[in-house]
Amino acid sequence: MIPLPESVGGALREIVRDGSPIWQLRCPMCEQWADIDDDQLHGRVSVDHTNEGCSYHETHDFAALAGLP
Ligand SMILES: [Zn+2]
Fold this sequence. Notes:
Number of helices: 2
Distance between the termini: 15 Å
Strand content: 25-35%
Bound molecules: zinc ion
């Protein structure tokens, strides 16, 4: 697990599902782990939890914040 800066909150982790690596974000508001795609990981599109009973809807370059290569 890679904690994200406090200004952004939450954390990233990489899991393997069916043999494929998948990044997940722990939402800083609802604390739930959710899959994010490559566009969300790199801040090209937003992460929107608003249809899951959470008000989190933000766009960040999580890969850069986490120091991923
Ligand atoms: Zn959330």
